[in-house]
Amino acid sequence: MRLSNRLMPGLLSLALIAPACAADTPELGRLFFTPERRAALERQRASNIQEAQSLQGSNMSLDGIVYRSGGKATVWINRQAQTENESSRTGVSAVVSPKIPGSALLAPGEEAPAQLKVGESINRATGERNTRLGGGVVVTPPSPPARR
Predict the structure, then answer these.
(1) What is the pLDDT of residues 2-19, one digit of tens each?
(2) Which terminal residue of the chain, N or C, has fewer Cβ atoms less than 10 Å from its own Cβ?
(3) Model pTM?
């Protein structure tokens, strides 16, 4: 009984101070953007507006592919994300085939389409391909022998 009588004032003061400390901490919200840019992003998200993107430069690269569970895919072309077959917005149509995982058929505008693997780029003027390894080789260690 005496122990609980000694603890009661401390617990009561802690209960009164805790909400005041929590009220003083500011909400973090979105980081890394100016307030104006955050407001513009919120307006875009609220009205589901996407920024217009176009293919720039002489090189076209396939930076990544993500397959959703619903079957649709998002592809990254020159570090810009788009859904497959979204050529009206970007000028590049990307056709992803589940039969050839990790690659896509990219067709920029009226140019001839090119089948690229993830991480590969192509010079649109010359057709020269680059795997971004710079002539190097990726070596993986051998797997350990199976235990019996």
Answers:
(1) 556 677 777 777 777 766
(2) C
(3) 0.54
Closest CA relative to residue 106, chosen from 118, 6, 98, 28: 118
Chain-centroid distance, C-alpha 16 = 44
- Torsion sign (Cα): 82, 51, 112, 116: negative
Residue type, position 103, single letter: S
- What letter does residue 144 receive in the DSSP assignment? P
CA distance 25 to 19: 10
Domains (range + CATH), the chain: 1-49 (no CATH), 59-130 (2.30.30)
Count of CB atoms situated within 10 Å of the CB of 102: 13
- 33-65 residue pLDDT tens: 688 877 877 777 777 655 555 566 788 888 899
